[in-house]
Amino acid sequence: xxxxxxxxxxxxxxxxxxxxxxxxxxxxxxxxxxxxxxxxxxxxxxxxxxxxxxxxxxxxxxxxxxxxxxxxxxxxxxxxxxxxxxxxxxxxxxxxxxxxxxxxxxxxxxxxxxxxxxxxxxxxxxxxxxxxxxxxxxxxxxxxxxxxxxxxxxxxxxxxxxxxxxxxxxxxxxxxxxxxxxxxxxxxxxxxxxxxxxxxxxxxxxxxxxxxxxxxxxxxxxxxxxxxxxxxxxxxxxxxxxxxxxxxxxxxxxxxxxxxxxxxxxxxxxxxxxxxxxxxxxxxxxxxxxxxxxxxxxxxxxxxxxxxxxxxxxxxxxxxxxxxxxxxxxxxxxxxxxxxxxxxxxxxxxxxxxxxxxxxxxxxxxxxxxxxxxxxxxxxxxxxxxxxxxxxxxxxxxxxxxxxxxxxxxxxxxxxxxxxxxxxxxxxxxxxxxxxxxxxxxxxxxxxxxxxxxxxxxxxxxxxxxxxxxxxxxxxxxxxxxxxxxxxxxxxxxxxxxxxxxxxxxxxxxxxxxxxxxxxxxxxxxxxxxxxxxxxxxxxxx
Length: 542
Prior knowledge:
The chain has helices at about 1-25, 50-75, 85-90, 95-100, 110-115, 130, 135-145, 165-175, 215-225, 260-265, 275-295, 310, 315-325, 360-365, 395-405, 425-440, and strands at about 100-105, 180-185, 225-235, 240, 250, 295-300, 330, 340, 340-345, 350-355, 370-375, 410-415, 450-455, 460-465, 470-475, 480-485, 490-495, 505-510, 510-515, 535-540. The protein has about 550 residues and is an alpha/beta fold. The N and C termini lie far apart (about 95 Å). Mean pLDDT is about 90; it is low at about 5-25.
């Protein structure tokens, strides 16, 4: 009997070793620049969490109380109140409805590793690498193979040097690509700020590159006439809280295993412990940014497990609206938090947010301003595995974009900078392609509104704000003629094509219009656009 037991145990051990080997072989060995540097020795931050608490917490909470009281006072006197009812009265500004296209700059500590596993339906997000290296077996295996089991989350901070970061170039590229607003990740879920926040030492001015990475984008946007948005995670994976006994306790936003103090030291370095996460830290930090950088848009994120009333996002938005009232038009998205455990996305906010087409409700899209955020690749965050084969083609990109605009939405396109802040060429090429397309076809995109029937097989429709023109966006070339069943013949005064000189012949076909496309345009090289072509249908005056 003993022999049978030991044989079974041996078979199990061999099987386990084989499985472990197979998993190890499936985990890629990253290129050298995405692995732990040779002879790298982790640097400990200059203060422990307890030292930060002893030296800075009291003074910071005193300043926080003043900032928090400022919010209370402004909202008491101002038009906008920190309630969902008041927030719902605020409307998306005209500039947002007209803009259609923005740049979402996904960049942070996670970009140093720059990896997530590719899966059949898209990919897991690389910008969660810091979190998942402690919680997900696949990420753990990858991390151990490429960075080592002893390489901890905050060991990435000294490597984050922004050596190739060129914020002015990014804004220039956004403008060249036809984008109208730029939204950098100012603070993601680890709490590392890309600006010198006075409410944490965990920022790019006091750690990593030792400079403000956001101010140059703000100034360049102003110079070029682009709008600037503030991406701000309203919750963090961990935060040190001072308990009733005076000791530090980790506040976490999920139900995962609570880290030990030793683990917290390497996941929350630079964070100054407070009594109340929201009043002593979150609200004052948001207000500090609003006052110092004057953004045109706030993009909340990281809200999906916490009650909105706990995060006080209504109060932050009300303060933001009040300080802008009568001075400039501003916008806030819909990621306020939860109510009774349910997400409030697509409930409140000047515009709703869709992520990789997850907001499928066409009625909500057509009844309220909305924005699709997605990347050229399958994910949020730089992934060194991206190639021409797995990123969206320029044609598919344009087709996707026009579908979004036809449904009344904006596209906030994610660009994923690598660990040192460079934008990969594959992404630059796509942006330049769509910029060239928009140079010719922008009239059918910018300042348009949704127009029934929105989409009809390979055709999308938009209309000018004044209702005088309908734009027929043909994603595939139809041949010598195109039938427009949804446009009444008696309403049409002329038809032309954007980027092409001359009027097109059209005639009645049933209730609709049959447009003849000139013979010379049947040759692809003669068409004004490489991708979708747009007919401009001018309607008769009433």
